[in-house]
Each structure stands twice: as C-alpha cells, then as structure tokens.
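Friendly challenge for the regulars: who can give me the structure tokens for this chain first? No prize, just bragging rights.
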Amino acid sequence: MTSSDPRAAAAGVARRRTKLSPWPFVGMGGLACVLFLDAASSVFAPWWIVAPLIVVWLALFVLACRWFTPHPRRVLWAAVAGVAVWFVVTVVGGIAFDW
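First reply, four minutes later:
Bragging rights claimed.
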C-alpha cells in the first residue's frame, strides 16, 4: 500500500485516484471555437447581432466553468449549444435581412 500521506498508510487506508474525463477539456476547446465564430460574425452581421452572441457565449462559458468538475459531459453540450445558436442566428439573419 503506497500513499503520500503517512497517516493514511498507517491507518491502512489507500487513496484512490479518480479517472480524469476528457470531455470538459473538449467542451472548453469547443467554446473557444464558438467565441471565434461569434467574433468573426462582425464581418457580415451588424454589431447589434454580434453583441448578444458574445453575451450568450459568456453565459455558456460561465455555465461550463460551473459544470467542469461536477458534470463533465455537459460542458461539451454547452459548446454544441453555442454552435447551434450561432448557426441559427446567422442563417436566419442572412435569409431574413440579407446580410
């Protein structure tokens, strides 16, 4: 029995290593991509559309930070939601307002 804490080793308690999930890291990378999509939308979309997209991204980022450890798979879905919101806003805006 190996442990870094001599008291735990003396008590006969072994420490377990928890398995690290890759999904929150993938989700945070996805959110970084969504931020670039939102910012690049300023090339063709008006500022009054890009600003709410950035606000939605910020809310998703805060939510993803809160979910990082307790719900690691949900972080990935936050990134997917960000891409979906961006896609819907840009397609509907392009069709309806001819950006």
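The radius of gyration is 21 Å. The mean pLDDT is 90. Your move, everyone else.
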